[in-house]
Amino acid sequence: MKRILLAEDEEILRMLIVDTLDSEEYEVDEAADGQEAIQYFLNNEYDLVILDYMMPTVTGLEVIEKIRELGSDVKILMLSAKSQQFEQERVMEAGANFFMAKPFSPLQLFEKVEEILDEA
């Protein structure tokens, strides 16, 4: 079973994503903010981390930087309403592997996650 860490501060979107990914293939841990995501990451191993860009306390960008500082090469998918080219470049430079602009359909996310984890 593949393990995914999801950090998203919008509860309804977080629930939708978990429902979309909830299957026999994936186990999903949920974090409501970046600080909680870092704590989960420090205590568990993941095949994929899905992060919202704009979160209170610690942003998704800061979470990426922390994960990479720890030397982890875990796959990271950033979700963001900030879809301008310079924002995407900033996310990728910080160490994300993939970027998905909001809004997205649950099917698009599921297909992207399957594509990422099939490569791993």
TrEMBL record:
SUPFAM superfamilies recorded: CheY-like (SSF52172)
Domain Response regulatory: 3-117
Pfam families: Response_reg (PF00072)
UniProt keyword list: Phosphoprotein
PTM-bearing positions, type 4-aspartylphosphate: D52
Coiled-coil ranges per UniProt: none
Superkingdom per UniProt: Bacteria
Protein name, as recorded: Response regulator transcription factor
Species whose genome carries this gene: Cytobacillus spartinae
